[in-house]
Design a protein that fits this description.
Elements: E1 4-7, E2 22-25, E3 28-34, H1 49-66, E4 74-81, H2 87-97, E5 104-109, E6 119-126
Parallel strand pairs: 4-5
Antiparallel strand pairs: 1-2, 2-3, 3-6, 4-6
């Protein structure tokens, strides 16, 4: 049986449902979706899409660090946008926070996200 552990940090929003922030299996960490919640207030940080995207990646970074990794260890990202017109903004924000080689990625347009968020990201990290 593989080595399995739950990853949890107060530096990212607490789960708002029946899930873990991340689950580590051997050297692979499965990162649950993060929306742009401030971990202290559990409220959406802003109505501005770029600010929401930065907060989402800040939350993902906190979970990565709790698992002894970093954004640079993410090998796959799945992005969910309520408006695909913001696709370019996601690319800009990612170039601020990620270094090459960038992770593999999918971007999906969705009707809505929890708490009225405009953006959500989840991924897989290997350390």
């Amino acid at each position: 049986m593989p080595n399995r552990a739950v990853i949890k940090t107060d530096r990212a929003p607490a789960a708002i449902g029946s899930y873990s922030q991340a689950v580590k299996v051997d050297n692979t960490i499965y990162l649950s979706g993060q929306i742009p919640l401030d971990p202290q207030t559990m409220e959406i940080v802003s109505d501005d899409f770029a600010e929401q995207a930065r907060q989402v990646f800040k939350n993902l970074r906190a979970v990565c660090e709790a698992a002894n990794g970093s954004l640079g260890h993410i090998v796959k990202l799945n992005l969910y946008l309520t408006d695909l017109g913001h696709f370019g903004t996601v690319n800009e924000v990612m170039t601020e926070l990620f270094e090459q080689p960038f992770p593999a990625r999918a971007a999906v347009g969705v009707k809505e996200l929890p708490k009225g968020a405009l953006f959500e990201a989840e991924g897989v990290m290997v350390i």
